[in-house]
Amino acid sequence: MRSTLFRNALGCCAGLAMLCSCAPKKPEKRPNIIFIMTDDHTTRAMSCYDTSLVRTPNLDRLAREGMLFRNCFVTNAVCGPSRATILTGKYNHINGLTDNAKSFDSSQVIYPQLLHQAGYQTAMIGKWHLGSLPVGFDYYSILPNQGEYYQPSFIENGDTIPEQGYVTDVITDKAIRFLEHRNKQQPYLLIYQHKAPHRNWMPAIRDLGIYDSVTFPEPPNLLDDFSDRGRASKEQLMNISTDMWDAWDLKIAAADTLHAMEQRPAHRTFKDSKGDDYKQANNKAEDLHRFFQVYNRLTPAQKAQWNIAYAGRVAEYNRLKPKGADLVRWKYQQYMRDYLACVKAVDDNVGRLLKYLEETGELDNTIIVYTSDQGFFLGEHGFFDKRMMYEECYRMPLLVRYPPGIRPGSTSDAFAMNVDFAPTLLDYAGVPIPTDMQGKSLKPLLAGNGQAPAGWRTATYYHYYEYPSWHMVKRHYGIRTARYKLIHFYNDLDEWELYDLQQDPHEMKNQYGNPAYSQVTGSLKQQLLALQQQYKDTNPTEK
Question: Where are the transmembrane segments (predicted)?
Fold first, then answer.
């Protein structure tokens, strides 16, 4: 029944799109577009970028058969704001979604609407996370808010539909079903977005314990003491040592504790922690409650597999009772085992989608983009999460495959940003790019073997707003050039950080105030002001 309704809805909307006065009467063969985005997937966890942690053969295939960008950066390293920038081609002070507490203004023009008007059939499937429902799509099936890893519900064209299975698999099932039932007379845009590998890193049941025998290499600054940094670096709340939760993040709740939680009344709830309240990071009741909400979504058979899979971890923790640096190292290994198992499921499912496209003969006529909403800390500086303008979360993965226009195995070191994605896809579809979009089409880089054309940007601009809130990262803005990075933390402090990325790639020594860097600092401040004027962020401390 649902499949029939799905096909009818797509057919009706597709027919309306074909009749739209904006659509060309006899369009040329235009490329299909699949935009794949994960949540919190850092380049270090992709073997086409870095082979030290995990193998991702299907993502590697996209890089091998397309272009890999080494210097793609986010404008604001947190989920909702990055998504809003990607859709609008505008910075967050322009599109209005400066932090996750806000909702996206759906009256704004987004690139999928422009593609729809130009004759593309459009679908949005997976994680949306913008506080409002998608507008202007022929079909959408999105996770409510963050979504759930197991037995997830979806909001599908306005109706809430519960599904069985693991979220990464279910999202791919829906994406393939859309492709099967789409109008074959139209090109399409499929936005295919995963929850994984977002916190709290819940692997597919089939992948539980898959990396238990692996000892992952530690980042060189896992035990960073921030001795050469200021308050902003010290006062955040995303330390592996103190801010990971035992049950929710590390899965070391004992079986008897889980059983006790199951006996509690179903209406028992805890408020979400925000701002200073989040300093209660070791609130055991809230930790267990949040974990139990997910654990209780498992079937009895899945719970049995879960308990067997994590019994060894619980026993090891109770036996070792690690403390200090040993505890940080132990937590890091458990974090990597769960995070990378989530990445494995993403890679497997990208492979499923590629296989479908290959079997239907549509693979080479389809632009495939793979990215994440930002990078992520995997123990660097002792951190997990994102938000800060440090390299690990500022840098985004970006792979683009399109054989008719991109040389296989090519790379680009030119500066790209997520604000560029919308102009790029419009450019490839032959749709005029609105003059108020602030990004630049990456097509010249993609068509030119990664080489930057004359006049291409030589610096990137960043602005983070979400404070006080989760992880308590101070508000800041900054500029990055090929060699240097200058960051200004403001609101309850006035603090600057300057890094020489050539001499200090791990960003361990703040050079701000060092006389040897006085000319560099002055030049960067001038360039920073010019970028703020260019992007119309003229009151950066007032938002």
Answer: none
